[in-house]
Design brief:
Elements: E1 4-7, E2 10-13, E3 18-24, E4 32-39, E5 46-51, E6 58-60, E7 68-73, E8 78-83, E9 92-100, E10 112-113, E11 117-122
Parallel strand pairs: 2-11
Antiparallel strand pairs: 1-3, 3-8, 4-5, 4-9, 5-6, 7-8, 9-10, 9-11
Amino acid sequence: QVQLVESGGGLVQAGGSLRLSCAASGRTFSTHAMGWFRQAPGKEREFVAAVSQSAAFTYYADPVKGRFTISRNNAKNTVYLQMNSLEPEDTAVYYCAAVRGVIAGRSNEYEYWGQGTQVTVSS
């Protein structure tokens, strides 16, 4: 069982930056690939980024490529999402998720989810 707690969300102006963190419980963090997803009001949850167990591989959705960076620190059981050049379209609740094994890009592949953190980007 893995429990995930996100933090770092908030209100920021367009063009600004935020760094989200997701702290995981348990001793098996390093055996899980981690992902970030987001859900805007009235829209389906969508993939944002993922990182492999050792951080050797990362994967991004096209809308965030070049602006967002996913990283992880296995010693701290934490995954991060650095978000730069934020746009109003990035406004959503952001969720981190974990899956044992290989990196994944679909929400139904993930086993564990956090409660989400709100990111609001004003124009």
